[in-house]
Amino acid sequence: MTTHRTRMLIIGSGPAGYSAAIYGARAGMEPIVVQGLQPGGQLTITTDVENYPGFADVIQGPWLMEQMQAQAEHVGTRMMWDTIVEVDLDGGSPFRAIGDSGDEYVGDVLVIATGAQAKWLGVPGEQELGGKGVSACATCDGFFYRGRKVAVIGGGNTAVEEALYLTNHSDDVTLIHRRDELRSEKILQERLFKSDKISTLWNKTVERFVAGENGALAKLELVDTVTGEKSELAVDGAFVAIGHAPSTELFKGKLPMDDGGYLLVEPGTPKTAIPGVFACGDVMDHTYRQAVTAAGTGCMAALDAERFLATLEFAEKEAAE
Questions:
Q1: What is the span of the domain harbouring residue 146?
Q2: pTM (two decimals)
Q3: C-beta neighbour count of 15 within 10 angstroms
Q4: Which one of 64, 65, 186, 234 has the lowest number of neighbouring Cβ atoms within 10 Å?
């Protein structure tokens, strides 16, 4: 077993983790980023990215993550190809983590950027057509379906919000829900039912996503949850909106979380309940879930980590004198 020591340990490697690393490295904290199972996070499975500031032309998600990683390395970040399986937050700084490799990682501050994953239906065609008509983020990809027929699958706040958002781009939005009533807030339901651009299919589940001759999504195969009757719906885009699951298993019982499993932070900051431990990106954000907001909170985590270390070092110096 090898022990890797750093002033700043970052678990996770999406926009939040890489941004924290860039700022941390430039502040002389010589960060270590433990990449995890999906280096680059959700953007590595996103094709066209049109809403990240600074790029006039459409860019590719994997390329953007490659650039962020290269930038972080260029300013002094060490990237580790490992997955953290255990963390020790007891006793305060320094914090320890154990990787799947058996290596130990020790950091004076810990930045958690493990992200979140969209929940999927797990039906045929869903994975194969990801980025080819199937998406889990209307805010990210809705623009590409301007003037086309789209569907949203789900019945909670997220699904209704996505359906309403898509009316900015499409006049033909179908909400598909497996029950006969929505779980979303009443005010959202009122807005949904008032829209003449949205129709609702009740008691329906998607059994299969079907590609057309061009290899992109062409239709949905549906089944009625009451009668079992099968039907089809022609669509150009389908948005799965059944929620997200934050990657916080490591921290259960060690850090406070909300009912959805997202890490709780001091409002307006990335500070968790344990001094020196910071959370950024989708692991603590169930509202926005955008690459640019994740990167922003990564920056915040690094700046607060730098201040924490300065205070810690001052206290240690005072105690030694």
A1: 121-241
A2: 0.76
A3: 30
A4: 186
With beta carbons less than 8 A apart as the criterion, state whether 76 and 25 touch. yes
Query: pLDDT tens digits, residue range 62-110?
Result: 899 999 999 999 999 999 999 999 999 998 999 999 999 999 999 999 9
Q: What's CA 246's distance to the chain center, in Å?
A: 8
Last residue of a domain, one of 241, 267, 299: 241
Among 82, 140, 282, 299, which one carries the catalytic annotation? 140
* Annotation marks residue 137 as catalytic: yes
Q: Phi first, then psi: give them for residue 48, nearest 5 degrees.
A: -75, 130
User: Based on the domain organization, do 125 and 168 belong to the same domain?
Assistant: yes
CATH for 193: 3.50.50.60
Single out the catalytic residue among 88, 100, 108, 141: 141
Amino acid letter at 131? G
134-138-143-146 Cα dihedral, nearest 10 degrees: 70
Task: Count how many domains the chain has.
Answer: 2
Set 82, 137, 280, 285: catalytic member: 137
